[in-house]
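ok so for the tutorial part 2 we go from a plain amino acid sequence to predicted structure tokens. step 1 is just haveing the sequence, like this:
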Amino acid sequence: MLNRNVIVTGVIAILFSIWFKICDCDLGLALLQLRGLPDDAFSGKRVWIIGASSGIGASLVCEYTERGASVVISSRRVSLLQAVAEKCNAGKTFVLPLDVLDINTHENALNAATKALSGIPEILILNSGRSQRQTILDAPLETSREILELNFFALISIARIWSKQLLSMTHGTTKQDGQLIITSSLSGKIGTPAGSSYSASKFALHGFFDSFRMEMYPRINVLIACPGPVVSEIAKFAHGKAATEFDSNKMPTKRCSYLMTLASFYNYDEVWISRNPELFFTYLLQYVPRLGHALGRRLGPKRVKALQQGRDLFDSSTYLFK
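step 2 — the prediction. this is what the tokens look like for a chain of 322 residues:
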């Protein structure tokens, strides 16, 4: 019996080590990859991506246009949007400048997107946002307000305007009429030292859009995507102290956007997209919260110290040594 227990423990340890090394998304999404994504998955679909000038948003543009969709892309940085359109598919990509903080322009922007696509967008992707590299005591209250205005209030404004128009045009049918995709973060599932207000804004998105999903079923499907560290410009424009962050410690942008597109095609509700250890820590807090919080209390001060020293917050060695 002892030998059998040793063997079982060894096998479990080996399997866990393999999973820890290679897995970069939640189990459901990992298995979904076996089904794959058809080349024409979004043929004829009308898509509007807000926050598409760089990073995940820009990569999503290519994912959708390559699979047949027509896409309106929006952000404040017009020159970057034009570059994205040329890279992905200029014939199927339409540039629509938008400052999401100017809430009074949201309805006109939707009308412009509808005109460009010859129909209201069937898929709306809300990807804009700003991150944070600050401790709670260093961040002024105004920073929290600014983050919530951009990451939360601006996005729910657009979502409400779009959903009202979409449902009014489909005349009370009982089938799915549209899909809403929210780029949240693993910081919306677990608290993030040196990013408390950013984390709060993502938690708020989950509360609102989980409720939205239940209210709108079956007319609008809601997918909340929760990436961990991904190669992008997010650190460059984050509130607070600039820290050294290496792309080698983050997921490639194209990998993240592919997994989001896969989840979109199969109408998933929520997906976690991240390498370990962030993915493991999310599972731990979700299913063994007492142990997860105990670990968080040990790792949190190390992350704060890393920020203060200008070290990479996503380097695993940051948390292994004093």
